[in-house]
Amino acid sequence: DAHPGDTLDDKTVKSFLGPDPESNGWCRQNWALWESLKKDQRGGFPKSKLMLAFGWALDEELDGTMGTREEARAINDAAEAAAVGTPHFYEMNPEEARENRRKAYVHSDKRETFSIPGRGEHDVWHPIRFAKWTPSEEKWPDGPRGIYLLFHGGGWVFGDACGQNDVRLEEMSEELGLVVLVPDYSKAPEHPYPAAVNECELAAIWVEENAEKEFGERAAKMMIIGGESAGGNLCAAVLLRRRDAWRGPRPEWYKKGWVTPRGVEGWPVTEIGERLGGGYEHKMPWKLANLVYGIYDVAGTPSVAAFGERRLVETARDVQWFGDCYCPDKEMRKLPDVSPLRGDFRGMPPAMFTIGMEDALADDTFLMHKKWVEFGNGVSLDVWPEGPHGVGHFGVHAPSK
C-alpha cells in the first residue's frame, strides 16, 4: 500500500493468490487474476497492478460519509486519552461490567423476541432467546428476501441480543429486506467453552430447520450467517460444525485436496459464489458468511502481541483475558472448535471480511481471509484505514454503510 511502485516476483504473487495453480488449488477468481497480470520490463509484477486486480484503489476516494484519516486519528487519540486511568477489562467484575454496559443500551420498539427449547443431544439444557427484526410490508410487499443470523460480540463475557445493537440492526433489516435474528448465549467465565458455541450451533440448526415455515420460502433461499468480534469466532466455529454435519461422504477430489473450477453433483457453485469467485457449499443452506473483526485464534496472533498496552478499545492483555475466560485450558485452544483459524475451510460458503487497521485483531482477519482464499472459497475483504476494534460502531466510520 505504501510502495505502489514495488515489483513482485512470481512466487510472491502466487503466495497472495493461494496454492500453486499446478495443484488445481485455485478458485476461478484467482485464475482470472493470474491471467490478467502482466510482467513489466524487469520481469516482475508491479505491486500497483496487483492492488488494482484485487480491487484496491491506489488513490483514496471519499464519499462524504466516512470522514478523513486525520479525523479518524483524532477520534482514536481522544479515545485513548479518555481511557487513561479507567479500569481495564481484566480488572472488572464481569457481572458489574455487564450491568454498567446495559445502562447505555438503546432499545428498538420494532424488536420482537422469542425462545426455542434446548436439546440435550447438543448439550444445551435451557431455552435460547432470540431478538428478531422483520422488514416492513410497506417496503417489502413480497416478504423478506433473506435471513441474517448474527452472533453478537463482547469477548464471550459481555453483550446481549437485546439492546446492544438494536438501532443498527433495525435499520439493516429494513434497508436490506432481511429478517435479522440474534440469539443470546451463555457468557464466560461462568459458562466457559463449549457452552456458547453449543448454543450458537443450536440456534443455526433451528434456523436451518424452520426458516421456510417461519419466514417464508423466499427468505429461506437466502440464509446468511455472521458474527462480530467474539461472535465472529463463534460463527466460524459453527460453520465448521455445520459443514461437517451437512457434507456426507467426501468426493474423491475432496480427499485429495483439490478444488475444481466447477461444482459436482451435491457440491454446487452458488450464485453468490460465482460473483465472489468460487464457493462450494457442500449441502449447507448458508449462502454467505459475514465475519466482522473476529478473533479466530484464541492463543493470539502477531498483531495482538504487537498491540501491547495501547488503550484503543482493548489491550493485548484484555484480549488474553477474554481468551482465559472463554477457554481456560490452553491446550484446548489448539482445537479449531475454539480457534477456527486452525481449521480446514474446504467447502465453505463465500465470506465477507471486515477489519480496521488499528485493531489488535487485524491479523486474525487477514489470516482467516487467506485461508478462505487458499481453500478456494469466494471471498471479499474490506479494510478500514485508522479503524479501531468495533469499526462501524463509533467514530467517523460509524455512519458509513
Characterize the structure shown.
The protein has 401 residues and is of the alpha/beta class. 35% of the residues lie in helices and 14% in strands. The strands form 2 sheets. An 8-stranded mixed beta sheet has the order 3-4-6-5-7-8-9-10, with helices on both faces. Strand 5, helix 6 and strand 6 form a beta-alpha-beta unit.
User: Poorly predicted ranges (pLDDT <50, ≥5 residues)?
Assistant: 253-281
- Shape descriptor reads globular
Mean pLDDT: 84
Give, in spatial order, the strands making up the sheet with the most strands. 3-4-6-5-7-8-9-10
Helix content: 25-40%
Structural class: alpha/beta
**Subunit organisation of the chains:** single chain
Count the E strands. Answer: 10
* Main pleated sheet: 8 strands, mixed
Q: Radius of gyration, Cα only, in angstroms?
A: 21 Å
